[in-house]
Every structure is written in C-alpha cells, then in structure tokens.
Amino acid sequence: MGRVGVLLLNLGGPDKLEDVGPFLFNLFSDPEIIRLPFRWLQKPLAWFIASRRTKTSQENYKQIGGGSPLRRITEAQGEALKEQLHYLGQEANIYVGMRYWHPYTEEAIALLTQDNLDNLVILPLYPQFSISTSGSSFRLLERLWQEDPKLQRLEYTVIPSWYKEPGYLQAMAELIRQEVDQFSDPDQVHVFFSAHGVPKSYVEEAGDPYQQEIEECTALIMQTLNRPNPHTLAYQSRVGPVEWLQPYTEDALKELGAQGVKDLVVVPISFVSEHIETLQEIDIEYREIAEEAGIHNFRRVPAPNTHPVFIRALANLVIDALNKPSFKLSQAAQMKKRVKMYPPESWEWGMTTSAEVWNGRIAMLGFIALIIELVTGQGLLHMIGLLQ
C-alpha cells in the first residue's frame, strides 16, 4: 500500500484572546456558514459581524482559560490514532487540518504533499455530515486538488460521515453510562442530547442530511446504551435572525424543568472534542438555564476526546476506508440527494419558500446597511436627509 497518510479535519479555534477576532472573520467569511445572494458581500459582512462579536466571544473564552483547547485535543487524537493504527499493523502519518484557524487545511496539505504519500484517508472529525462542517472542508479540498497536479496524482479516499460506526456508538454509550450511574436513581435520569444547530433552510432548501443523521445517531446511541432512560434531542449555538433547527436547547431545558425533571445528563452529540460549545455554552450558560428551571442535578457527558474505544473506532474507519473502493471529494460533497453547497436559489413571486427566504435576506441586508450607517454616520439615508 506504500506510504499512508490520514488527514483529520476540524473546525479550529483561537489559541489565545487576540486570535478571537481573526478567527471569527475567517468563520463568517465562509459562504457555507452564511449564505448570501451576492458573494462580494461576504467579507464586508464577515468583518462587521466579527467586529460586533469579538468582545463578547473573548469574554466567553476567558471563562475557559483564554483560548480554545481544540487544537491540542485534536493533535492528541491524531497521536493516539497513529499509535492505534500501529498496534493494528498499519503505519500512517497523521495530519491535522483546521478550517478557520491554525493549522489550516492548506498547511496540512502542504505538509502531506512534501511527504510523497501513496495513499491518503480524509477523515472529518464530525460524525454527521453537514454542508457547514464537513461539506465546507470538502469544498475547500476539492479546489486545492483542482489547483495542484501533485495532489491529483495522489490516491485518496474520503470518509464523509461515520455516525453509525459501532465503536463510536459504544464510546458514547460508555461515557453516558458513567455519568448516569452517578445518580441515586440512574434509570430515571433524563438523557439530553444537545447538537450544534444549523439554519433550517440548510435542511429544507439545500437538502443537508445533518438533521436526519443527528436523529438517527441519537436513536442508535440510546439503542447501544440499552437502558430505559427518557431522552430529548435539541439544538444549540444558533446565531442571527433566521430560524434554526428546533427545539432550541435553552427552550427544551425550560420545558423539562416545567415538567418536573430534576436529574439531567447532557450529551454533546455532534462534538468529539471539548471546546467553547461544551466548556462554556453547555457547562456554564445552559447549566444556569437548567438550574433556573428547577433542574438542580445537572451533569455533562465528556466529549470522546482520546477515549480508547473512540480512538479504536477512528482506526477501524481508516483501515476500512483503505480496503474499500475510493470515495472522492466530488462524491462526498453530493453524497445525499439534493445536497447543494450554498446554492443561489432563484427568486420566485408569491408565498413560496424561496420568496420568503429571499425577502428575508434582502431585509437582513437592509438592516445591516442601516446599522453600518448608524455606526459610521455616512450613507444613503444621511445623504437624503432622513438621518442627521
């Protein structure tokens, strides 16, 4: 098989407080994250949002030590994966490529092209596929492949999603069981799955399979857990004025509190590493919401990180991928029917979904223009005298 490499893909995160602004700019510059009808608006809007959110985000990162642990944990996962593959008889070089911060995907590609690999496995550290996570990285990689003849000669395969991997399900079940068993009445503990949300339009318009895969994954984990605990699935981390997948985590917590739930274990289902969404959003913000709702016994399941069963699952994925027909980036980006990457939908008259979406986008752009004008004191409304 020759020299084998494994490229681990992840989001990335600011290493220190000074990195937060540039990281947010990179994040919101991605058209898979904010879908706009005009591409030239992407970077100005990204700058505006990042400028408005930097201070608040820095305060959040201060609560977890001043930076994201994502790089450190991902690199530790890579080392553990390399050791596990060696144990299973497969030597491999591991590369970490982050989408929005160092080490960038482009940096990882530069390293692996220098190593003269014969085979590469591309493994996103997102169990479930979404156009805003794995899809964004696949789109970037597809462009890099088109631009580099050396990459085009490299044999590679993509693992687009892997939420059904038995070892991953077993690792999640073990982590949940450890937390549930800390309660006096384990079988009555409510298991609360909190997944990172995406805008509802991604699913309904763009055909993103993310919601379906999250729901299937939740059911499979509960089946693997094989206990009678009640469970709920909700979605966290929404931003902006558009509708996201529901129920929202904060609303679901309040509803469970109103129903009299006292014992709760939160499972960060779409995260395999600790970072801002687990350490700050769940552990601090959602814990406070739960306690105010009367849920006083609140525990959170750790992310898999370098859990041995989880690392074995990743190793199994790599070995299986090497022994199967290759799966290409173009296939990964279109793996489900109707999946489109930030599609510029045609506008329609009438009370249609497309018309509503476009009207919402136009209204959003108008609102942004108004805010910028109020902040800068310059613009069309000032010119015609409506604002002084």
From TrEMBL:
Query: How would you classify this enzyme at the top EC level?
Result: lyase
Lineage, top-rank taxon, reads Bacteria
- Pathway as given in its UniProt record: Porphyrin-containing compound metabolism; protoheme biosynthesis; protoheme from protoporphyrin-IX: step 1/1
Which reaction does this enzyme catalyse, per its entry? Answer: heme b + 2 H(+) = protoporphyrin IX + Fe(2+); Fe-coproporphyrin III + 2 H(+) = coproporphyrin III + Fe(2+)
Q: What is this protein called?
A: Ferrochelatase
Q: Which residues bind Fe(2+)?
A: 196, 277
Q: What EC identifiers does the entry list? A: 4.98.1.1
Q: Which InterPro entries match?
A: Ferrochelatase (IPR001015), Ferrochelatase_AS (IPR019772), Ferrochelatase_C (IPR033644), Ferrochelatase_N (IPR033659)
Give the source species. Nostoc parmelioides FACHB-3921
Family per record: Belongs to the ferrochelatase family.
